[in-house]
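Page 47, continued from p. 46.
Same chain as before, 504 aa.
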Amino acid sequence: MIDPVFATLGLETENSGVLAGSQAIQATGPRLASRNPATGEVLAYAQAASPGDYEQVAEVAVKAFARWRSRPAPVRGALIRDLGDALRLQKQNLGRLVTLEAGKIRTEAEGEVQEMIDMCDYAVGLSRCLHGLTIASERPVHRLMEQWHPLGPVGIITAFNFPVAVWAWNATLAAVCGDSTIWKPSPITPLTAIAVTKIASQVAEAHECPGLFSLCLGETEIGERMVADPRLPLISATGSCRMGRRVAEVVGARLGRTLLELGGNNAVIVTPSANLDLALRAVVFAAVGTAGQRCTTLRRLIVHESIIDDLLARLGHAYKSVRIGDPADDSTLMGPLINEQAVASMMQALEQAAEQGGTIVTGGKRIDRPGWFVEPAIVRATGDMPIVAEETFAPILYVIPYRTLDEAIAIQNGVEQGLSSAIFTDRVTEAERFLSAEGSDCGIANVNLGTSGAEIGGAFGGEKATGGGREAGSDAWKAYMRRQTCTINGGSALPLAQGIRFEL
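Result:
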């Protein structure tokens, strides 16, 4: 039986995954099933795009950009303000849909929708703060300045684990910067994308800009079309490091821009001076929240050898108290993995950990019930185990001993990813060492809190194989605009820069 929230959000048992604005194009690509990870049952179907369908969407986005870029930025912000209000009205319904399709517990699902709303609020303020610079010129009676212009249609590729929030990180900023967008969501979570695009497109049409937000559901073929399309000067892609390398290669070959937010193999260092009660709460949420399916999930816990046994005992007790089950039940703390493949990947990683000398302290078993439920696992490990250097998108926590802080930082930095990191310490010297240029090499570095739960006000992203991209706050808006340096001569002479003389 179809959930009542489907009708409220304009969804059906069969949905077109191609929306050029609010106009549904009869998609001619493969038929994709959206499954509830808590039961394994099909929720509904969505028709994906064919290459021909993508061409229609791209043409609409190009035309929308031509109209939208000339509107003053504060006027663009008014549209995003209305989008935030529309999302507020549907917060519980969209949260329910995220729970059904992605398996997130209710509070996390509604929190993700709230993140979209917060991004709208942030973008509205930003629409009056797209500042350039006035620069001192070396030539008299000259003014040198920088200004920013809309970049063009932006391609957004997102993953299943944050099926709506990451779109908002990009689409809201792109819109106030004057850009239209084409969204390719994960084929695993098509319904949330369809519902959000319908809401956004209705708001855009009310502001007489149809096609500002478009959707093109598809698998690899559609993604390849997008990244190779010279009409999209920027591709923002969230996903695996392998996927990001392919995007960077194709977009780079056409000299386009990429904004990559890729894998994370995040670590927390716990020092002897740490408040262990505080560390325990942060570690459990960071490692178990979203069933270990965040790019900022805690994967490696690096603990001083003098306190590792104490912390492991506390963690084992805390893990046994984690309530696993129906994500729609308010008492549940951990829902299911996204699909059967995710369960298999977790079990394979645990087998490899045991073969490489690791010891499973607790958890790690599949739960015998419908859907894709597992026990979160704690593995006592060493930093040189090959499996520890890999990101397994599941609730596996490798606990690693260290002797000196330099050794702990080296273990933390000794993986290809560089997204999020944290240290728990009550010593200011240790905190400052961790935050110094010789400390964490990650894009996010926290003191006395976990690796997940970043706020939108700070630019989100990481270094190394994480891709180097930044989304959401700070000056991330510059990725969606083109910089122009302008010089104005206010006099009748023609002095040249660097004192060059060229007399006719």
